[in-house]
Specification:
Strand content: 5-15%
CATH superfamily of the domain at 239-390: Histidine kinase-like ATPase, C-terminal domain
Order of helices and strands: HHHHHHHHEHEEHEEHEEH
CATH topology of the domain at 239-390: Heat Shock Protein 90
Number of helices: 12
Distance between the termini: 114 Å
Helix content: 55-70%
Structural class: alpha+beta
Shape: elongated
Strand order of the largest sheet: 2-4-5-7-6
Largest sheet: 5 strands, mixed
């Protein structure tokens, strides 16, 4: 027992005699005075203002004949410091009450001693009330500003969320179109082989139906992929394109359909655009015209110049579009009624949205003139290149 006590005494003595561990290299102790200065630095303007008020209160007390100057200086300085600091409501009210009592008390004593007129005392509540009105207006404006900022932040968050959702939708369409393209092509090839090799007429007929549906599905995936890539930077590969050549080539491609085809005005015009995309847009307009006409109806194709723009026009004498549906026909998967085409002509409701996307990508537009039973005219407006630049 005695040995254990001696061992504990030695341990306590060693703890008292051991020096404090040295400060690690690279670490510096911050002097307490500097720490205190850093803590009070945000309050330095308030401290300076309080000193200023104290000096002016002393001037009011000692210089009764000039008491108006320090009195006004106190209230003006309070207004200025509040404008910069924007205290919370409770400190503001306490400061206002302290200044009111201090200035009013000095003036009240001076009035009792006959050093000031009694009317001078009425200025204290008036100026104090003016300050309160200023505080009320300031806080009201501040609250309104905060509400606007909050609303703007909400709008920004909603906009960012919409952009994110649109980007996800576009990415999904691109991925789905790519993933569906290969199996559809493989299945279509096998269906065509079965159709050619079949000796049974029923099997050949079934194979033709499968081939037709797979071809439609492939067109659908291609159009979805085109729409999904409409906003990407590499959507267009710009080069000078002859608009009149586009119209003539389109008439050659579609002239075999059982319609009365007519070539309208063909002006020489050159646009800066993507030839493949413009061909796709013009084909979509012609497909739409075929879908809304019957054999024997007229379809006219042409191009003319209008105010520095090349206008590619497709006019048909078909069923026309009701006025109520003119605003919605450019939406995706929307078809105007009545719809005369069979399934093999298309009918996805993506043709006109593709035309609009391609025209807007060329900094152009699409417009339509139509009425029920009077046919339709679709015009794709594309900025033209001046003759000197085109040559």
């Amino acid at each position: 027992m005695e040995k254990v006590v001696r061992t504990q005494d030695l341990a306590h003595r060693r703890e008292r005699t051991e020096p404090a561990p040295p400060v690690a290299r690279g670490m510096h102790r911050v002097p307490p005075l500097r720490v205190n200065l850093q803590r009070i630095r945000p309050a330095l303007p308030d401290i300076a203002w309080a000193v200023f008020v104290g000096l002016n209160l002393a001037a009011m007390r000692l210089l009764s004949n000039w008491a108006t100057v320090p009195f006004l200086a106190i209230w003006v300085s309070l207004t200025v410091i509040y404008g910069f600091r924007l205290w919370r409501l409770q400190p503001t009210i306490l400061t206002w009450a302290a200044v009111t009592l201090a200035t009013g008390g000095i003036i009240f004593v001076q009035v009792l001693k006959g050093q000031q007129d009694a009317d001078y005392l009425a200025e204290v509540p008036l100026i104090a009330l003016m300050f309160l009105v200023m505080v009320w207006h300031g806080r009201r404006r501040l609250a309104a500003t905060q509400e606007r900022l909050t609303a703007m932040e909400q709008v920004q968050r909603i906009s960012q969320e919409n952009v994110r959702l649109l980007e996800q939708q576009r990415q999904f369409l691109q991925d789905a179109s790519h993933e569906l393209g290969t199996p559809i092509t493989v299945a279509l090839g096998h269906a065509e082989l079965i159709e050619r090799a079949a000796t049974d007429q029923a099997v050949a007929a079934d194979a033709r139906v499968v081939t037709s549906e797979l071809a439609r599905l492939r067109r659908l995936t291609n159009r979805l992929l085109l729409l999904a890539s409409a906003g990407t930077p590499d959507f267009l590969h710009l080069a000078p394109v002859s608009a009149d050549a586009l119209v003539l080539d389109a008439l050659d491609r579609w002239g075999n359909f059982p319609r009365r085809w007519r070539l309208g005005e063909v002006a020489e015009a050159t646009v800066r655009g993507d030839g493949d995309r413009l061909v796709a847009a013009l084909d979509a307009l012609l497909e739409n015209a075929v879908a809304h006409t019957e054999p024997g109806d007229t379809i006219e194709v042409g191009v003319h110049l209008e105010g520095g723009n090349a206008v590619l026009a497709v006019t048909d004498s078909g069923c026309g579009i009701p006025p109520a549906e003119l605003d919605r026909i450019f939406r995706r998967f929307t078809r105007a009624q009545p719809y005369r085409s069979r399934r093999e002509t298309g009918g996805f409701g993506l043709g006109l949205p593709i035309v609009q996307a391609i025209a807007e990508a060329h900094h152009g537009s699409v417009r339509v003139h139509s009425a029920s039973g009077q046919g339709s005219t679709f015009e794709m407006v594309i900025p033209a290149i001046p003759d000197a630049l085109a040559s």
